[in-house]
Design brief:
Elements: H1 5-14, E1 18-20, E2 32-35, E3 39-43, E4 61-65, E5 72-74, E6 79-89, E7 94-100, H2 102-105, E8 109-110, E9 117-118, E10 123-132, E11 138-140, E12 145-153
Antiparallel strand pairs: 1-6, 2-12, 3-4, 3-6, 5-11, 6-10, 7-9, 7-12, 8-10
């Protein structure tokens, strides 16, 4: 079941769902808007010949920090990692879904390729997979509304929520534009 605005406000205000900082003005009828953070991961595509998911990714991306008031330019066809300025935390019986803002999607901005899901038990900033599918550059400003989160209840609490020792959760308590840690998986 998707949580409504009244339920969202109640859960954010009580801390049952973590949204820090919380701004009640960002709550929509069945979602909450989140803002763009200041850190971006930019592909080093001029220096590398390929991506191997089983290799550590330190050489794959440069980290760029943009102070509020500065502009990050996402060129056509480019991919970069971003993150929410808010820390998000789901209890064991709630999941979150990351969706793009319709108005930005109509300009050609995609905010996730495949990682649009926030597991029960997760806590941290949400990494955004930013892609420009238009034919003009898109200007992104830290602090702008960038995505919306929809929260849903599970039929019961997860037995092994994200962060459980058995799961080897790689992104628990992440902050910033954290690159892929796929290489930590067994081949």
């Amino acid at each position: 079941m998707i949580l409504s605005d009244g339920t969202l406000r109640k859960h954010f205000e009580s801390g049952y769902i973590v949204l820090d900082p919380y701004d009640p003005e960002l709550v929509q009828p069945a979602s909450v808007d989140v803002r763009l953070g200041t850190e971006f991961g930019v592909m080093r595509n001029t220096r590398l010949t390929h991506i191997d998911p089983f290799e550590p990714q330190q050489k794959l991306m440069d980290t760029v920090t943009m102070p509020e008031g500065e502009i990050f330019v996402l060129h056509p066809g480019e991919f970069a990692l971003g993150h929410t300025s808010e820390t998000v935390g789901c209890p064991d019986d709630i999941v979150g879904v990351v969706n793009g803002k319709s108005s930005l999607g109509r300009l050609g901005l995609q905010v996730h390729a495949t990682a649009g899901f926030i597991d029960p038990g997760f806590k941290g900033t949400v990494v955004l997979e930013l892609s420009n599918v238009s034919n003009l550059p898109i200007l992104l400003r830290p602090g702008m509304k960038i995505a919306q989160l929809v929260f849903q209840t599970l039929d019961r609490a997860a037995e092994r929520p994200y962060g459980h020792p058995d799961l080897k959760s790689k992104y628990q308590n992440q902050h910033g534009a954290v690159a892929s840690k796929y290489n930590l998986n067994s081949p």
